[in-house]
Amino acid sequence: MKLDEDLLLLLNNFFSGIKRVRDHSEPSLSYPEMEYNWGKKKMAFYTPYIDLKDKIILDAVCGLGGKTVLYAENGCKSIIGIDMDENHINYAREFSIKKGVSNAAFMTGNLSTLPFESSTFDIIFLDDVVEHLRRPILIKALAECKRVIKVDGKICLEFPPWTSPFAAHLSINVPWCHLIFPQETLINLTRRMNPKPRLGKLSVIEHFLELNHITIEEFKDIIKKLDFKVINHELVMLNNIKTFRYVPFFNKFLTSRVVAVLSKSMEGGSLVDIPPFLLFEGSS
Q1: Cα angle vertex 230, ends 82, 47, to 5°?
Q2: Is the distance from CB of 174 to CB of 11 less than 8 angstroms?
Q3: Mean pLDDT value across residues 32-42
Q4: Which of 207, 235, 258 is the last residue in one of the domains?
Q5: One domain, residues 32 and 155
């Protein structure tokens, strides 16, 4: 096992030049600023299908509020950021004050029992959430989101599937390390690297252990069983190289993010109506 750790450390040093997503160990408010900037990229996934102007929005599992504040600045009537972690909510409130937004509010809450009436929201964002919820909770959470959106509302979500190169959410630079090395090796090396504490309640290792290892196919099955209407379902490929979508078998390992826009309205087709190659390979 020590040999595995040494090999992983050697590979990690080799890949150290790869630009990676930084973790929650940044000083207060630097991570919300990064979330804010990430939100601009995430909005690009959704803008062909939604308009934030004058909308009532829920940012489900809002993290430290960076993306919530960005959405608030883009013309929505109001937005609520909800998260189970009180530390996250405190940072989010602080960040919203810093940015001077008046149409954003934050609260602690559980996605599996959302404290809102049915048909409350025009849009719900679920950014980097799907991979963190155990399957029974994920199913309840998605069903709750479907309940609280309006009849023509949209649920916008994106997440890295377990086959994604950096799905482990660790400060280890080795692509697919979670598929190549045993879990124990990843945890032991993370301890050796001595990461700084995250800003939330969970440690870096706890954050890794909560991941549900969801695959692209499993996600498709879940939204089919919950009878969502699919407005868009797209795979964002590694380095945004779209031709990777057409590499049989390996395309799932070359997928960086799964992006979906869902609805309970009659607009858009069901999964059954959409050609399988579009569901897997993504739209152009």
Answers
A1: 65
A2: yes
A3: 91
A4: 207
A5: yes
